[in-house]
Amino acid sequence: MSNTNPSSLLFIYLMIISSQSVILICKADASNETGLLHRLWPASKNYTPHATLVDNPKKTLNKPPLRGMQPISKGEEFNYLEGTPSGPKNWGNLNPDWKTCADGKSQSPINIDVKRAHVMPGDLKRAYIDAPARLVNGHDNIGIEWLGDAGGIQVNGSTYKLHQCHWHTPSEHKIDGKKFDAELHIVHKNDKGQKAVISTLHTVGQSDPFIGSLTKKINMLGTKEEIDLGKISASSIKHEGKKYYRYIGSFTTPPCTEGVIWTIEEKVRSISKDQIKLLKGLHQRESRQNARPLQLLGGRPIWIFDIPEEKG
Ligand SMILES: [Zn+2]
């Protein structure tokens, strides 16, 4: 194993995963469109419904937009309260389309065991641009949905367009067993429907400038479903780190679709207590937290790589 080029390993692994994940993604799309991780795409002006969705009379595109950027409609479908009938351990039993939450073999989030991460060459390029966006009250989280071409990222030679970002409090991923106070997920999708998420962990300290720039709007959001943000760029989310972890996982919410490329920034950023409160205050759920418990890593590799410091 030590003589094997890490790039080749990654390539082979991705080929295996993508052949499996396409099936899973198609299945999830067909049967539970509005339940997709962040149920964002149906609300997008760019979204084109596919036949399978139209074929399913139960699913329409007229559901309230983003009622669940992080899937949940008013919170009755599933929750984050351990030991309750709709809690994380039962997600897979609540809906036949969510079976992967229970029997998936590459679920997220996971604990990143740093000493077991394989070193590999870097391959993350960000190229975000200004685009119309709106702040969305997902009822389990808040997030931003971009409505036009907001640029995106390149991972493993494939271009993934930016769709949305949202926060979890506390973090979902752990690093060497340590949980953090918040986690930002920036969700991208390529033209094959495959997803790539960039994750940034936050610990309480100084305020985060990006959330700071949204504070007024978040306060204005209140119980509204959404607020227009005008044109913004995800390049405002500064990335200071050079090191990243990567693994193949899933959506962290039902239907827990697998085949998601996760890229987690090694550098932990700060967030103020008030900002945590602000993000939590909008969860209209009894649990006031929206982090799925850790999932088994199984035999999945975790990679670590460096990229040159980015500007912007
Ligand atoms: Zn998320």
Automatic annotation (TrEMBL):
<dbReference type="GO" id="GO:0008270">
    <property type="term" value="F:zinc ion binding"/>
</dbReference>
<dbReference type="InterPro" id="IPR018338">
    <property type="entry name" value="Carbonic_anhydrase_a-class_CS"/>
</dbReference>
<dbReference type="InterPro" id="IPR001148">
    <property type="entry name" value="CA_dom"/>
</dbReference>
<feature type="signal peptide">
    <location>
        <begin position="1"/>
        <end position="30"/>
    </location>
</feature>
<protein>
    <recommendedName>
        <fullName>Carbonic anhydrase</fullName>
        <ecNumber>4.2.1.1</ecNumber>
    </recommendedName>
</protein>
<dbReference type="InterPro" id="IPR041891">
    <property type="entry name" value="Alpha_CA_prokaryot-like"/>
</dbReference>
<comment type="similarity">
    <text>Belongs to the alpha-carbonic anhydrase family.</text>
</comment>
<comment type="function">
    <text>Reversible hydration of carbon dioxide.</text>
</comment>
<dbReference type="InterPro" id="IPR036398">
    <property type="entry name" value="CA_dom_sf"/>
</dbReference>
<keyword id="KW-0732">Signal</keyword>
<dbReference type="InterPro" id="IPR023561">
    <property type="entry name" value="Carbonic_anhydrase_a-class"/>
</dbReference>
<keyword id="KW-0479">Metal-binding</keyword>
<feature type="domain" description="Alpha-carbonic anhydrase">
    <location>
        <begin position="76"/>
        <end position="306"/>
    </location>
</feature>
<dbReference type="Pfam" id="PF00194">
    <property type="entry name" value="Carb_anhydrase"/>
</dbReference>
<dbReference type="GO" id="GO:0016836">
    <property type="term" value="F:hydro-lyase activity"/>
</dbReference>
<dbReference type="GO" id="GO:0004089">
    <property type="term" value="F:carbonate dehydratase activity"/>
</dbReference>
<keyword id="KW-0862">Zinc</keyword>
<keyword id="KW-0456">Lyase</keyword>
